[in-house]
Amino acid sequence: MRSLIVRRGVGPDEADDIIQEAFARLEAYTQAKEVLSREAFLMRTAQNLVRDRARRQRAAPFENVTFDLELVADASPHPDEIVQGRERLRRVQTGLDRLDPLSRRCLLARRIDGLSFGEIAARERMTVAAVEKRVARAVLFLVRWMDGW
């Protein structure tokens, strides 16, 4: 019975549902009337259920379609998150303004421009160790500055 249903274009999961429904209808029918051939009754009921399912799909093709709400839902942040993010950016900008100009340039060159310590050292005419130390101190200052925000 399952293979007959699947050959008619019904998926395996739905075929199992149709078979279960056919058995349920057989059980309900035998409560009131006598059935001469249980197998024939099940096959005819399954065929009718498949036909009814096809009619319903033609009448309402989008009825059983499931939508992925992640694709429909707005993924943009909430207004309060936007305000909080802007406040954090202002706090970071204030912290960057408090750094000495050389440390700020080294930190931004490393973090924003993606330059290596050697490239920054050559550009600022410093040793690599001095640039590393300045960047490390600037990061530590900003971490402490932003603590609690």
Structural notes for this entry:
It is built from eight helices and no strands. The protein is mainly α and 149 residues long. The protein has two domains: 2-59, no CATH class; 79-146, Winged helix-like DNA-binding domain superfamily/Winged helix DNA-binding domain (Arc Repressor Mutant, subunit A, Orthogonal Bundle), CATH 1.10.10. It starts with a helix and ends with a helix. The model has no long low-confidence stretch (mean pLDDT 90).
Q: Main traits of this protein?
A:
149 residues; mainly alpha; Arc Repressor Mutant, subunit A; 2 domains; rod-shaped
**Number of domains in the coordinates?**
2
Q: How far is the N terminus from the C terminus?
A: 65 Å
Please tell me what the overall shape is. Answer: rod-shaped
Overall pLDDT: 90
Task: Using the CA coordinates, give the radius of gyration.
Answer: 35 Å
* Overall number of strands: 0
Classify the beta-strand content into a percent band. under 5%
Q: pLDDT under 50 segments (min length 5)?
A: none
**Top CATH class of the largest domain:** Mainly Alpha
Largest sheet: none
**Oligomer status:** single chain
Question: Which structural class do you get from the secondary structure elements?
Answer: mainly alpha
The CATH architecture term of the largest domain is Orthogonal Bundle
Instruction: Work out the helix count.
Output: 8
- What do we call the CATH topology of the largest domain? Arc Repressor Mutant, subunit A
